[in-house]
Inverse folding.
């Protein structure tokens, strides 16, 4: 599974790094692991959640609290079957996009 640095995520989402760190503090579903040197490593799933947070905040004008509640509802177990399939497709798309950007 590919891991992304906060710089990579910042470029993908087109937001500043401090914004991503703020979202991490505010939304418990975003919890990147840190490598041996202490740098954050984001998974595809965390990037998908960050995309959703950005959409809710910037496009739908949610507050951070509203976005947190909305994501909680979307990630409830009853919604995971369809959500996991969509997440898998998004993950594949992100990987393809990352490979294209490298070239």
């Amino acid at each position: 599974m590919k891991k992304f640095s906060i710089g990579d995520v910042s470029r993908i989402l087109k937001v500043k790094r401090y914004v991503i760190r703020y979202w991490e503090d505010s939304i418990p579903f975003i919890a990147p692991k840190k490598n041996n040197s202490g740098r954050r490593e984001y998974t595809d799933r965390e990037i998908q959640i960050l995309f959703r947070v950005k959409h809710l905040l910037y496009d739908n004008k949610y507050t951070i609290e509203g976005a947190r509640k909305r994501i909680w509802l979307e990630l409830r177990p009853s919604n995971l079957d369809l959500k996991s399939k969509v997440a898998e497709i998004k993950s594949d798309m992100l990987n393809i996009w990352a490979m294209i950007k490298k070239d």
Summary: The chain has one domain: 6-102. The chain has a mean pLDDT of 86. The helical segments are 6-13, 17-26, 44-59, 64-74, 80-102.
